[in-house]
């Protein structure tokens, strides 16, 4: 019996390792980007019945696990306020250092509002560089102005 979405995430990660499957392969089966598909498999997005069934077939998940993939998740996957994983911490550091800069520049360009993480897309690519490969991340979120009332 499955009692949490976290258990399904663990099942997916285990099957992925056991079968030697890459996130991009799972994304192909889901029919979405590797970024969205990975987030969905890690419990941050809701899959359609067709998507969940396809992932279930690829990873040999039970019908119960497939059903859990279709439930709206509780978003936010970090176990602590300040992340301890070095890679995730660097993103935290990036926002700590450049967050106010991003806020100022977005407000200057668009006005008082936010960048949506709901109407959002992301693309992560490897960028070859003779000084050491680079991680290129492009994020695009709809601007949502604050309303006066």
Describe the protein in words:
The chain has two domains: 5-68, lambda repressor-like DNA-binding domains (434 Repressor (Amino-terminal Domain)); 86-145, Cyanate lyase, C-terminal domain (Cyanate Lyase, Chain: A, domain 2, 2-Layer Sandwich), CATH 3.30.1160.10. The protein is globular. The longest helix has 25 residues, at 86-110. It is α+β, with helices and mostly antiparallel strands and 149 residues long. The chain contains six helices and two strands, in the order ααααααββ. The protein has helices at residues 5-19, 23-30, 34-41, 49-59, 63-68, 86-110, and strands at 113-127, 134-145. β1 and β2 form a beta hairpin.
- What is the class of the largest domain in the CATH system? Mainly Alpha
Give the name of the CATH architecture of the largest domain: Orthogonal Bundle
Low-confidence stretches: none
Radius of gyration, in angstroms, nearest whole number: 18 Å
Report on the biggest sheet: 2 strands, antiparallel
C-alpha geometry = globular
State the end-to-end CA separation. 48 Å
Explain briefly what this protein structure is.
The protein has 149 residues and is of the alpha+beta class. It contains 6 helices and 2 strands, in the order H-H-H-H-H-H-E-E.
